[in-house]
Queue: 3 jobs
Job 1
Amino acid sequence: MPNASASRFRFVAHALRGDGPFRPKVEAVGVGTDVQLSGESALVRYPRESALKFARRNDVAFYASPLMRACARFVGYLGAKPPGRELPGDLYKLIADNVDGKGSAIDVFWSQFMVDAKARGTMLLQVDMPASPGENRAQQIAERRVPVWISIAPESVTDYAIGDDGKFDFVEYGGTFDMPDKSRVPCAWRFDREAWSAVDDKKKVLDQGVHPLKECPVLIFTEAGDFPSFGPFASIADIARRLFNAESELDEILRAQTFSLLTMQVPDAATDTEKLGAAKVVGETIGTANLMVHTGSTPAFIAPPDGPARVYLDRIKGLHQLIAEVGLDVGTVNERESGLAMRMRFAAINAELAGFAGRMEDLERRAWDLSRRWLSMQGAPSVQWTRDYNLADIEQELRILAEMQAAGMPAAVIAEQQRRIVAVQFGGLEQTRVDEINQAIDERENEPRPTTPPTQPVGA
């Protein structure tokens, strides 16, 4: 079926990268100061706004991509505890060291893949094999003739069909094909459970073949459900578009109303012609380098009200807060929140991290299994992604520890809270070092406690 969600995925991708309509292009017209908008823009034109004025507003507009910041922050938490892998064999290690054929190690490749996947809620991973696998193991290693992992954005998919097992029966997506003369031409790639092909825009078959996988080599990653699926961060793209417009509209208000208006009183008996003449003279001659001598009432400046700008500032602040809430930004925690509210906030992001890591672990296992089949090997690598990321507010945890100690809680309870603080504060250390710190806590917990001698009765 045609990919009806392609336009939505494309919009989210533009909001993530800050290009396309979020980076409108304005070009000069002729030799004057006139400009015109070239291409699409995420800014909404006012009903009575001229094309020139709208183009100038696009020329000074800026976009900081809050979606990218939210996704990068989320993936940064995941990257603090990289997954553990056991790679049996040199060929698997060769894949892990250069997983995409471009020199990227597997964790580097996953970091960018996860940013794209978190923004959209969906990404695709193709496990491909070079046309010639090599004559022997030495040639395979020397020339890296092993499977490559390729990330595919869901907006590039043009047609697909999903089987009962949730995998692609076939998928078609737009890409490029390397011609024998080293040039690249646009093409449509098609992969199914048995074969593949590349067709140019004239429906000419550029190349085709079969594969031994008995499964489509394009794997699906979604945060929930079948392909296509949108994740919770995708809504940040819509909020970011409104924020983009609000900041541009605020700039327009400031440009139009910041400058004060000079007023000059004229006699009531003056005719309209005299009033216009006085206004013309003053408007042409008064400036910072001029001195005006007057009689009667003093000329004054009327400053425009700041109400419209203040309303926009409050609205922009609210949009930033909404993005922080949707993006699970724990940096927005404030001291006025109760301990329970803070724990619930951190528990929510820990749950999101654990769920996302579980789906990434499943994707990586399937990718290794396809790589094993391409190489006709028996044992596949094992992989384990972390589930407990222990994100918490360290100051709040220290306050809880102090209150436990003040309340005379048992040593075992205090030691458990100390272990939690160690996990939060030193989560980035090597596991051996963390084990040493926890062992020191255990040793202190097991130390004999001094006993208080019984009180002797008076007169004994």
Job 2
Amino acid sequence: MGDVLQGSVRGWRGVATCPNRHRVGVQFTLPDYGDAPALYQCAKCATLLIVHPDAETYVGPPWDEKRQHEACPSCSEPLEDAWLYPDHFRCVECGERGSFVAPDRYPPDDESEVIGGWDAYG
């Protein structure tokens, strides 16, 4: 992903608990007049990757195919093991893999924030 650019999307913050009961801050996106950008996390270093559905469709190839041949821009590990985030996340305290279910209702707009990460199709 040598020429990948850092990017950002609008989202919200939540709190999850890892298997070792550490409380972990996570970020999530929700659809807004279409599909929401998907977030993936490197299984090794926890770097976030942003996958815009339009880029998958119009730039291609689909993310599941593209990531088989890409490496994390932060740690150079293969991205084939990257997981959908925050459905799964790496605990910053113990490194264990936890899970989070995003709310199905929108939090207030004034609670939204910018989520930074690497644009997978940049």
Job 3
Amino acid sequence: MQIRNDRLLDLATNAARGVPTVQRECLRHLAFGLSDNDGVRFVDIATNPVLPVELRAEFLKETLVVRPPALGEWLGRQLHTHSEPEIGQLARRYLLNVGQ
């Protein structure tokens, strides 16, 4: 699975650079395929400037929906101050909703 995920990320950030439909599909697979214990990798993808911010925001949003709350809270704490509004706002919104 690790090799598969590495290839998907490589495809999204290199070979498919500038092809958002392919990048989106790679990120969808990664949202489901990465290990819950690999939080740093989720953060790296959500903040990777090679990928369009819209696609990274979709990736983060989907990740926060389908992954366990513990991972979502950790991601929210890591990203709530991110400089890109799309990413930071998603993280803050998630943390606000979890606190209710």
